[in-house]
Every structure is written in structure tokens, then in C-alpha cells.
Write a structure and sequence with these properties.
Layout (H helix, E strand, L loop, with lengths): L9 E5 L4 H12 L4 E6 L6 H9 L4 E6 L6 H15 L4 E4 L7 H4 L3 H29 L2 E6 L12 H20 L5 E8 L19 H14 L3 E4 L3 H9 L3 H6 L3
Parallel strand pairs: 1-2, 1-4, 2-3, 4-5, 5-6, 6-7
Bound molecules: NADP nicotinamide-adenine-dinucleotide phosphate (NAP).
Length: about 250
């Protein structure tokens, strides 16, 4: 049956090795996406994932090098090269990110900067040229993996949370700027997801899986939504936390 996702033929992933991103791409390929470009720090490590996507039905799968730490010119060149060679993209999924070590980063400026650079600055300089190409093509969605941790950064991981808050705010503003161009920006806000990033950590309440985040993302893409939460109940939990007076918030064990 043809549905709204039947039009999503091509996807570019910035941070192509991410477990959440790969679950999302698998779900898109299962729903007939055929062109997949996985941009990652070590593209050679993604050959098995690329092969799996071909077996699942993708006909044009490529891995290219992308490092959020590279400069803006390198990001612009990469984006132009990929769009020039593959044509329009229906979805750009922005998934690169690092959790960092909060205990180190809150006392070491270089460590804090590294987290902010990867999660915010390095993605902004890659998103902007993607937005320009999509504005020119007149359609598509930039889906940005944000997090509830950016909604109200908490004591135990505010370096990561603040970097994602910056990315989230940038994505929201970009979505507003692109209104009427045919290009949508979808902000995806998962809670705790069981992936490599959280391996060894105690799971937070309402913890979820990459597949569930993929499901929420595909639902948001189909609806042309500007924000999705995974799981959806986190929207209400975070609304309470966001408005909690700071003296109370500080006493929460988080
Ligand atoms: N897991 C969670 O609980 C959770 C919750 C909310 C939001 N998120 C967000 O979801 C996204 C995906 O996370 P995930 O859970 O799927 O974790 P993941 O599997 O560790 O994916 C993170 C990806 O980011 C890539 N990356 C790190 N630094 C990079 C850099 N400098 N340049 C390019 N790529 C870089 C990593 O590449 P390598 O493969 O080379 O290491 C990895 O593929 C992240 O943005 C994360 O902040 C995660």
C-alpha cells in the first residue's frame, strides 16, 4: 500500500554508524527507500551495514567520510559532492554525537569543548549546506537526533545536555526559517536508548530501543511533524521537569 513514506526514496545520514540511525535507515529501506548514503568517521567500518541494506532492497548504497570535527569548508564540499552525485535527498538524518565524560568535561575546558564541537558546532556546519541544497530542490526533511537531555540539562550530564540543547534550538529555528520552502525539519527527542552510547549505564525510566526511536521518526516523517518524542510520554514528563522550580529540580537525584 502506498503511504506518505512511499515518497521517501533517498536518505543521507550524518553519523552513519549510529545504532539509532541504522535502525531508522533499515525501517526506511523496508518502506522502499532505495538510495542510502552513510557518512561516518570510519566509512570502512560500515561495509557490513551497507551490504545488509543492499540485501534488504536498497539499490544505491554508499559510505563516505564525515567527521564533525572537520572544518566548515570540508563539510560544504562533502555535502555538495554527495548531492551532486546522487541528486535530491528526501531525508537527511543527523545522528552523529558523543556522550562524553561529564566528570572530566565539567573540569576540563578542552574535554567540554570537544563534546560541544561534535554535538553542536560540527553538525551545524554540515546541516547548513544540506538545508541549502534541500531549499534548492524544494522538498525533503532534515531529521535531527536531539534528546530530552537538552530540554532541561541536568547536573549529571549538563555538558552533553547543553550541546544537544544548542543543536535542538538550531534545528527548531532552521525549521521555522525553512517554512514555506517545501523543506521540513524534524526534531527527534529520545530519552534513554539502549545503544553503544549508553552501554554500561543504568537505564533511565521509560528507556527505549533504537527500533522504537526509528518508529517514532518514521511516524514524524509521514506526518510532516516538527517534533517527536520517543517514547511519546516523555513529552509530558519533560514538560513537568522544565517548569519545576530550580530549588526543587536541584534536589532530584539526576
Ligand atoms: N543512546 C541514547 O540514549 C540517546 C538518547 C537521545 C539521543 N541520542 C542521540 O542519538 C544520536 C545517535 O546516538 P546512538 O545512541 O545511536 O549512539 P551511537 O551508536 O554511539 O552513535 C553515535 C554516532 O556518532 C558518531 N560520531 C561520534 N563522533 C563523531 C564525529 N566527530 N564525526 C562524525 N561522527 C561521529 C559515532 O561514530 P563512530 O561509529 O565512528 O564512533 C557513532 O556512529 C546521537 O546524536 C545521540 O546524542 C542518543
Amino acid at each position: 500500500m502506498k503511504d506518505a513514506l512511499g515518497d521517501l526514496d533517498s536518505v543521507l545520514v550524518l553519523g552513519g554508524g549510529s545504532e539509532i540511525a541504522l535502525a531508522t535507515v533499515r525501517a526506511l529501506v523496508a518502506r522502499r527507500a532505495r538510495t542510502v548514503v552513510l557518512a561516518a568517521r570510519r566509512p570502512e567500518s560500515l561495509s557490513a551495514a551497507a551490504e545488509e541494506l543492499r540485501t534488504a532492497g536498497a539499490t544505491d548504497v554508499e559510505t563516505v567520510r564525515f567527521d564533525a570535527g572537520d572544518d566548515a569548508e570540508a563539510h560544504a564540499r562533502l555535502v555538495d559532492d554527495v548531492f551532486d552525485r546522487h541528486g535530491d535527498f528526501d531525508v537527511v538524518l543527523v545522528a552523529a554525537g558523543v556522550l562524553g565524560d561529564q566528570a572530566v568535561a565539567e573540569r576540563d575546558g578542552a574535554a567540554a569543548r570537544a563534546v560541544v564541537h561534535t554535538n553542536f558546532l560540527g553538525l551545524v556546519s554540515a546541516i547548513v549546506p544540506c538545508a541549502e541544497r534541500m531549499r534548492a530542490q524544494g522538498h525533503g526533511t532534515i531529521a535531527v537526533l536531539s534528546t530530552v537531555a537538552g530540554e532541561r540539562p541536568r547536573r549529571s550530564n549538563f555538558v552533553y545536555g547543553s550541546s544537544k540543547a544548542g543543536l535542538d534550538a538550531f534545528a527548531q529555528g532552521l525549521g521555522d526559517a525553512l517554512a514555506g520552502t517545501g523543506v521540513n525539519v524534524l526534531v527527534v527527542r529520545p530519552g534513554f536508548v539502549h545503544t553503544r552510547m549508553t552501554a554500561g549505564l543504568d537505564a533511565a525510566p521509560l528507556a527505549t530501543t533504537p527500533e522504537k526511536v526509528a518508529e517514532a521518526t518514521l511516524d514524524g516523517l509521514a506526518r510532516g511533524a516538527h517534533t517527536v518524542w520517543a517514547p511519546p510520554a516523555l513529552r509530558y514528563v519533560m514538560s513537568v521537569l522544565r517548569h519545576m522550580p530550580r530549588p526543587v529540580f536541584r534536589r532530584l537525584p539526576m
